[in-house]
Design goal:
The structure is a single chain. This protein has about 230 residues and is α/β, with parallel strands linked by helices. The chain has a single domain (about 5-215), classed as 3-Layer(aba) Sandwich (Rossmann fold). About 30% of the residues lie in helices and about 15% in strands. It has a six-stranded parallel beta sheet, with helices on both faces. β3 (about 55-60), α1 and β4 (about 80-85) form a beta-alpha-beta unit. About 35% of the residues are buried.
């Protein structure tokens, strides 16, 4: 029984907790699970907080999701699983100024037509037929977090303080190039890097099986009741 473990899931920009819907049916019932939702499809912004407990905390974060944490949160993480993540969004762009300009264009489009912007974003993530599935769009929060994404950089010392780190990345990711995870792996020698050669930025959705099996391979006890038991929507 894994009663001494708490599992936290954090989605990235433009998504909500539904990113993890294919993961949840297979989670062991003995594990305390927490799904964080930033509030992009709600009227209220939510800040991330760990529960107050002595349990070991495993954090699974997608993309920009890790940037929602405050500095004090990192010291509480026993294990980090970062999927399609980055320290600074523009850090390894071929053209830094062009990359920044793309974020500025996204901000402009967000103000004019947020639904179309998100639909285009999902398509670029590798989700061909996805659209925002909520009548509520927190345009202000989406905009503010684009501003944050444009400038925020994770502190390397905070990451080094985490005892175990797994880095998962889609090799065909055109939103966050896999070079981000390769460089993070070099900067964090105790981390382990796993690349999915077929998928892009929406890796937790497009190949949940691969993610779960990769994560499970690093544990002596099962986090998931049936590691290969998730059915993919085709």
């Amino acid at each position: 029984m894994l009663t001494n473990v708490e599992l936290y899931f954090i989605h990235g920009w433009g998504f909500n907790h539904a990113v993890w819907k294919k993961w949840l049916p297979d989670l062991r019932q003995s594990i305390t699970t927490n799904l964080f939702d930033r509030g992009y499809f709600k009227n209220k912004k939510h800040d991330f907080n760990f529960n107050f407990s002595s349990r070991s905390k495993i954090l699974i974060a997608h993309s920009f999701g890790l940037h929602y944490l405050s500095a004090k949160d990192f010291s509480q993480i026993h294990m980090l699983i970062l999927i399609g993540g980055f320290r600074q969004f523009h850090e390894y762009a071929e053209n830094y100024k062009f990359s920044q300009k793309q974020i500025e264009l996204m901000k402009q489009k967000l103000l004019l037509d947020p639904t179309n912007l998100l639909t285009d974003f999902y398509r670029n993530c590798g989700l061909e037929n996805a659209t925002p599935n909520s009548p509520l769009l927190n345009r202000e929060l989406l905009y503010d977090d684009l501003v944050l994404l444009n400038t925020h950089q994770l502190d390397l010392d905070n990451l080094k303080s985490i005892p175990q780190i797994l880095l998962l990345h889609g090799a065909k990711d055109t939103i966050v190039n896999a070079e981000h995870s390769r460089r993070l792996h070099e900067q964090l020698p105790h981390s382990k890097l796993f690349l999915n050669e077929k998928e892009g930025h929406a890796l937790p959705l497009t190949d949940a099986d691969w993610c779960i099996n990769t994560i499970q391979s690093q544990f002596h006890k099962k986090l998931f009741a049936n590691s290969a038991g998730i059915t993919q929507d085709k």
